Here is the input.
Amino acid sequence: MNPKVDAYVARSELWPDEMTSLRPILLGCGLDEDVKWGKPCYTADDKNILILQEMKGFLALMFFKGSLLSDPDGVLEQQGPNTRSALRMTFTSVDDVTDLTDTISAYVNEAIEIERSGRQMEPAPDLELVAELQQRLDDDAALSNAFYALTPGRQREYNLYFSGAKQATTRSARVNKLVPKILEGKGFRDR
Here is the structure.
């Protein structure tokens, strides 16, 4: 057991008992544990397999390539409507963990095999930009260069935010407001 994860669990106010009951299952599957992105993360052969995420209403065991898992027990959930690859199991009690011990082990072992096999997610579909953003990019070469220098995930996140507005004026206002951030090379959630 990793002392960094020990310290994380000791500080937890939401799901320490559930994490304590999950750790032996995960380590028993041959995973290594560490803290990445401020959360307990589990790897095999230095490849990320899953991460524990404490939410107010549940503890999530999130598989990075969850959409490649077969999920015969139907326990995996999407994190949100725009999730492509990561899927999670959720727990609200130690009993939940205990009841799903065999399922957890089976899913972790499958996730390890997927990673070792080299299987990858299907490439993301080409991003269809909202018209107001596309127009600004067409009109401003510096903005276009800055936008396309962002990672695909950051481009997608901006586009989702812009396209979430119902009215064209609101979409344009959103684009205009965030142009400086894009020019700085920052993602939507970056400060």
In short: The CA atoms of residues 18 and 94 lie 5 Å apart.
